[in-house]
Amino acid sequence: MLLDGKRILVTGVLNDQSIAYAVARLAQEQGAEIVVSSFGRVMNLTRRAVRRLPTEPEIVQLDVSDTDDLNALAERLPFDLDGVVHAIGFAPPSCLGGGFLDAPWEDVAIAMQVSAYSLKALAVAALPRLRDGGAVVGLDFDNQSQAWPVYDWMGVAKAAFESTARYLARELGPRQIRVNLVSAGPLRTLAARSIPGFEHFESVWSERAPLGWDIRDTEPAAKAVIALLSDWFPATTGEMVHVDGGFHAIGA
Ligand code: NAD
Fold first, then answer.
1. N or C: which end of the chain has fewer CB within 10 A?
2. Does the annotation mark 223 as catalytic?
3. pLDDT tens-digit profile of 72-124?
4. 140 CB less than 6 Å from ligand 1?
5. 3-state secondary structure of 242
């Protein structure tokens, strides 16, 4: 099995539609022991979701915008880690769905902190428990070289997230810790459904992706996360793997 004997922290399990839920399930099926993180108001949803996993994992409290939670993470973890999965995104309503020109900095700052800076914050918080040779894998929506409709400040945050992953790869490389992203096509999760106009992506995607695209199937993205957590990408870091049916490679 791909993750035999590995121990992984999976953030971002909200319900069984979360990309992180598919990651958690596949990680367990591939031999990993996992711990899940959640926080405050959504903790109960996470608790309900993880009961349906093959083995119910421990849940640790982590709000990535809370300094006390970040400082306490290493102590709260039940074991040392071989991998950390970042599946966290949030932007206030003003930052999404149009109104790019009007979103106030206070809201944009929240989007940047929770959706971009948090990759660094999470990695550093977990670092005391992360073994040399481990892996950090994040979930992305490709914003390297394009502006999307309705994605607005979340797109700007994702561009910062992508850059953060590359700088983290520089910093953690000397410890043989790899940092990579999976750039998924649109998936109908709670985060996506909260973006007004997100349906636009869904229809465009299934038309243009050479392999086709199922907006309800989180497994392809999760499989790529598992592969990047495994020992089968030993010399890959600072990379983004597209799991988008091939959409990114096609012009029109
Ligand atoms: P989701 O709503 O299931 O997950 C988002 C998670 O972020 C939730 O578990 C939520 O609890 C967590 N979160 C929000 N604020 C947080 C905070 N302050 N501290 C800790 N956790 C916090 O949706 P998802 O689509 O599975 O999102 C997971 C990741 O995948 C996100 O980074 C998202 O941008 C990315 N992604 C999603 C899509 C898509 O179309 N759904 C496509 C590409 C990438």
1. C
2. no
3. 999 999 999 999 999 999 999 999 999 999 999 999 999 999 999 999 999 99
4. yes
5. strand
